[in-house]
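Issue: copy button drops trailing tokens. Both records pasted manually instead:
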Amino acid sequence: MLVEGSLRQSLIERFQQGSYKEDLVAVDVEVQGDKILRVVSAGSNSPGNLPAVDVRSGLIWPCFVDIHTHLDKGHIWSRSPNPNGTFAGALETVHQDSSRWWQAEDVYRRAEFGLRCSYAHGTQAIRTHLDSFDAQGDISFGVFRQLKQEWANRIHLQAVCLVTLDYFLTLQGEKLADLVADSGGVLGGVAFMNPDIVCQIDRVFELAQERQLDLDFHTDESLDPEDIALRLVAEAAVRHQFTGKITCGHCCSLSVQSDSVVQKTVAAVKAANISIVSLPMCNLYLQDRQAADGAVRTPRYRGVTILRELKAAGVQCAIASDNCRDPFFAYGDHDGLEVFTQSARIGHLDHPIGDWPTAITSTPADMMGLEGVGKIRAGGTADLVVFKARSFNELMARGQRDRVVIRKGKQIDTILPDYAELDDLMAL
């Protein structure tokens, strides 16, 4: 069983007579109704007349928590592929696709498709960023509110508005902040370096404080060592004495900056109590891609932020999926296990794995303010993913398509939706 923090240490101490390796402990999990009644050392408690399932030393995880996605963009690759795979190409392609297609039905059907994929794979909570310029904000947040209601008993949903920060200096930006507040969302946007960035960041903090909103920024999604938006956000948080939750995603430029610059930024992030979300799969796909004039060049730098260093400094770190089958990332399937295995490989989060699995379970749940989600504990809801793999090595070596997903104590259908369902939207 995968367990976290103090509970893991407690189990290790309590179950030292049992099997323990790879930061895993051998336990029996007793479920009554929709609750976990007890977690005890394997074999120490006779089931008596209770029905029992032998998972043959397979791994038991809490359900996944995906704190950074883009459900509104998902699954448009078939009609709008990125012509060269670059970040600039993705921006332009999404702009063209949204201008033509992103009415309520289109956004709803693709987002709902992504939710069904997520649910079948074992995801329990999602935070999605929604492109929100002008009328698109009303459309996409309207769809989000509908989906949040429809999926209330299956997936916890949160939404973040996504615009460039200069938008918040306008009347439309203020109206967007109101829309976010009315939707129970999180205020956010893309913080890119420009002469007015400090003023823009300050305005976002003011709007958030006035409406008691948490914040979630895209920061430094580039390999430019001069990009220091993350530090500027951290300094603003201290300057405004902000008491809400702050999350910053990507932070790619940290991977190419000098040690002195990195140390200054990490210290500022820690002082501001900012949480960091790394998106290894999308950053690996986009960063340092060279496609101009037909050039053929293997990438030298991959843009994954400094997860190990941030965590060692006491910064809360999560990993997430980001985009799925759209111009920013051509692949993916809304699978938290794929996010974990790929992130571990890309970021060398292994040997040992340690508690890095919490980066896709309990840690993002805490960042989202979801009590009891992403955890296995007595008294908690029986939301579990059971794998045949008996170790992290076996787990990461195969795709685990035969996993069992348990929600509220009952096994769910894990058949994935057919891509053909979206064919009419793709003009295929």
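Record 2 (pasted manually too):
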Amino acid sequence: MEIENPNPVQRAVVNALRKNIMLLNQDNKLKDIPVIHRVLLFTPSIRKHLDFQNLESMIKQYVSDASPLKADLLRIIAKYIEMSVQVSETKVNSKDVVDYYLASILIYQLLTINRYDDCMELITKVIHLFESTGYMDKQKEYILCRIYTYLMVLYNHHYEIPSLLPTLLASYRLGCLHNNRIVCSVLYNSILRLYVHEKQFLSASHFLQTAQFPNDVSDKQYVRYCYYKALVATVLLDYAGAEHALFAIHKRLSDGSCVFAEEVAKLDILVRLLTGGNPDLAQLPATRATAPYRDLAYVVMRGNLAAFRDVVQRKQTCFQEDGLLRIVSRLHNTVIRIALVKMAKSYSRISMEEVASILQLGNSEEARYTCMRNIRDGIIQGRIEGDYFVMDNTEDSVTTSRPADLFSKKIAACLNLRKEIIKSRDRKSVV
């Protein structure tokens, strides 16, 4: 007879797990994807209350004796329970996707108790089995994506991260050969994450240029791809590419309060500041993680070099943990540029010693070089006369057509946006 569980929580968990298994065993004539989505959605609430004994009973009842995973699953579970669970001899005819599903739950349980060696053994077994037999089963592919995520977590905690790269690249090549977009999207982001973790941004850029991200994948994987693309572009000074990738994230990101949205907001602030824009801090999630970047944006937009250095020094650990310290350090020139623009609006003629004092530069020669560089880049209008910097403020908003031209561009952009909305609405009505 099947073991009776007096704990009502455990009983409810076992019943919920059994329902998920029954859903996987159903023969859907249309598509299996909605079913696996439902199963994976409710799995996190099940597995955190599941113990090894209940998991063993499910494996004995629903996994066939001919399954290549059953012996390994029971052998690993036997290490962590004192007594085997007695179940009925009646076996349920289950699909092999149930094997993968129960294996993924067991992998998660092993990760939570820090049993890394057994976890690695089981992950390797599942991946090898899938690569040899399972590429035509969409349900298995979604479960395998979870297992690859567990593999990344496992290497972050126990193994050397660089040693994972050959495994991911080999699996990605095999997935491309089988035209498996689901698994390839997860592997693509995992490879980019590994490159970013090891600060191999040139390799990441080469991978982005040579390997194409799969189409028609979930929004979750697509926004992560865009995030890594924006991060790599920012580090390599491609701010236009970073802005384009961040814009794509904002179009597809549904939950603005998640942890990933905070990471996107941090990078978005830095890119906007580096490109001379003013980030919309009102749209920034007001959390402890984003507070240093909010303070950083305030001091940069004010052009206060002393306050900028103070924020960087106080929050250096935070920026370093986020992997954005290199990008934050580039804002030093941005702060100087903003301060110099404000100075040009306030003075018509100023000595280099005073410029060096206001900008907190080393000497007058450094101030001279800073002024000449910004004049060359078109940031300010002026000239160097001896030891003085003379501003050319001959144009204003009354005598020039620049404000009218900018206003006309804004109006044209709004009209084009209105036309696109009308066209898209008409297409939907026709369909």
